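@channel sequence for tomorrow's demo:
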Amino acid sequence: MFLKGAMVGGVAAALVFVATTALAGTGVGGIFNLGDANKVNAQSSLKGSTGKKNLQITNTGSGSALGLKVRPGHPPMTVNSSVKVANLNADKLDGLTSSSLQRAYARTVVVSPKATTSASGNALKAAVAGITTAAADERYLVKVEPGIYNLGNSKLVMKPFVDIEGSGIGTTTITRNGGVDWFDGTVAGATSSELRLLTVENTGGGTQSVAIVAQDVNPFSVRWVEARASGAADNAAILVHGDGAHADLYGSAFTATGGDNAYAVYYSGGCSATMNLSEATASGATTNNWGVRQNRCNATPITNSRISSTGIGIEGDSSCGLSCVGAGPFVRIQNSVIDGTTNSIHSACCMQTRVSSSMLSGGPLSSPFTNCIYVWDENYTAATATTCP
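structure tokens (generated this afternoon):
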């Protein structure tokens, strides 16, 4: 009887062990086993009242701390709060990145053309000057209707958190004549502002003719803009200047013509900038034609763009525009075309230029400080994969 009872007890214990092993982590009421696959066709919840997190997941390895998987067409997460989560940035919204999204505005100011182009220019300046409450959480949009807005011999000064939007390139034109110096252009950019969808020109008449000036601003954005400068001894379509200044140039065309020196894009004084899907063209000057003049600025990538000049390419062989001040400044050129009659690229004074997947056309390269990888000439000929043509 004792052996029979012991045998029955052992079988029962074994069955309990098997049942426990089978049910652990599986089904409603099962134990959640760490390191195992747990399955249940019901909602599990964790509820508590604490001033800290209810659940903390830490992964000290190379993997993520949390993974969420659902069937196609279903959201991986639901929340009940609209409060912004620090350091949680959505990569895409309906297939668009954050840089492609239109800003939300607290107010929109519409500027219409007047009886004369001068009156239109005065109306535009007055509209921008009249905005006094713009802030990071109260952005303004100045919408400029089709027409020519002539500023005369004064400039349009933008304001922080105030964007200016035209009705299209060549449809809305802001123009003026000349200026007293390099920083007295047609439009003066401002920190945390954007200029877009219009034409800006400076017709000269003085020593310098500058269309857009981005002096000591960060960030400042120029998108879908045509900028033109001519009629002076020195002409620049855009000038970005100042230690810490930063400008983003996107989808725009910059043209400087004539005079002694023509600079389509002029970087100077410790600034930084990005140039993407844009064109810079300089021509007609008697001394230097520079598609891009890079003078003492930090890393300024040029991507998917075309830089061209009649006379000299991205830099001139008569000056050291790319000068090495401090450690580490360089120009990075990718997927672009650099075309210059005298030199495609001229960099000096130890300024580093790095070119990849691009065409160098026209005159020979003039730079002992340029590195190339997969770069070809106008005949689609490359010396080697890592040699500049």
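heads up for whoever presents: DSSP finds two helices and 23 strands in the chain.
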